[in-house]
Prior knowledge:
The chain has 394 residues and is of the alpha+beta class. It is 61% helix and 10% strand. The chain contains ten helices and seven strands. A five-stranded mixed sheet has the order 3-4-5-7-6. Strands 1-2 form a two-stranded antiparallel sheet. A hairpin with a 2-residue loop joins strand 4 (326-334) and strand 5 (337-344). Helix 4 runs parallel beside helix 6. The radius of gyration is 38 Å and the shape is rod-shaped.
Amino acid sequence: MPAPTWDGAAPWGGRPERFRPSPTAVLVAPVVVSAIVQVPAAIAIAAWMRLPAGVAVLSVGLAIAGPLALLAARRAPGPTVAVVTGLALADLLLPPDVGPPYVALAFAIVLAVSRGALGWAVVSVVTGWVAAIVLASSLGPTWHPLRIAATTALLAACFGIGTFARVRRERAATYRADLARRRRTAEEQERMRIARELHDVIGHALSQINVQASVGLHLMDREPERARSALENVKTTSKTALEEVRTVLGVIRGDGEGDGEGPAPLAPQAELADLPGLVAGVAAPGLEPQLVDRLESAPPRAVQFAAYRIAQEALTNVVRHAEASRAFVVLERLGDDLLLTVDDDGRGLRGADEGSGILGMRERAALLGGTVAVERSPRGGTRVTARLPWGGAG
């Protein structure tokens, strides 16, 4: 028989799982208990009362048949309670009038009600009990009213226990479904976070590499030094992108290791101090970026990282879509908020540009309790305004 299991604290903030016996134990235990109570008692009473051989065999057979019928309670709880009720009725009417309690009937009622076969249980037990009272009065001595009342109360208690077990069963099923839903939600959020990180890192890097490679090809013959500088920028950008991808992969693995070349930090390290390099990196012939930093202090690292990624995505969109000649990144503190503004003088935002990049910016801000607005810029292009709580409270 499989051993009962004990589950520890439930993940995702759920309440701890309680001691839960295996399904096989739940099925076999009523059979064993009812057999232990009924069979030896039936044998002892038959021997003590010196019953005729046929009656004794029938009495012991009924004592054995009830527990064995409980083996079908899992798949067919309704028919099982009907069969056990019939066996209990036969045992009750079989002489002698004094006999062991038919415990199998109590288990059959509880199992039927707890498994949703309430109709079967009510019809079977009520019919059987009424038949027992009527037949007993006509075939033998009349039962005492206290005996009838006590037996009725015990049958009603079995229905109450079964109802309680059914409610607990339904609550447990609801809890497990809720826990599974929370796990799926957490997994989906983690996948979205990973996709957002990779989109920001790879999308920005590829945009920069494309721009700088185009500059290098354009100036290769006329201005070799500027072409060399553009190729060096390609090298630097690709190296930085590889390091950031390695960091993200280390976070995904959760073991602090990157690609095998050394430990990777468990959290990305980008911060506002890296913005000057980010802004300078998007500079190209025809595009002049500018950073205006009005901050006198720095917010927490989580806010810095979100602001950096939002600025990175906004500048990537400027490079890829805006066809702008100037771009401005402004950092300032307004009350309890960090305000990040990215402006350009390009062609402006079009409906097709509302893609995963802008969605990712808004998700980053929302995680901290902030907002991102994308609108027409007074300079003629697009303005991205991110407002993030200075303390990073979500």
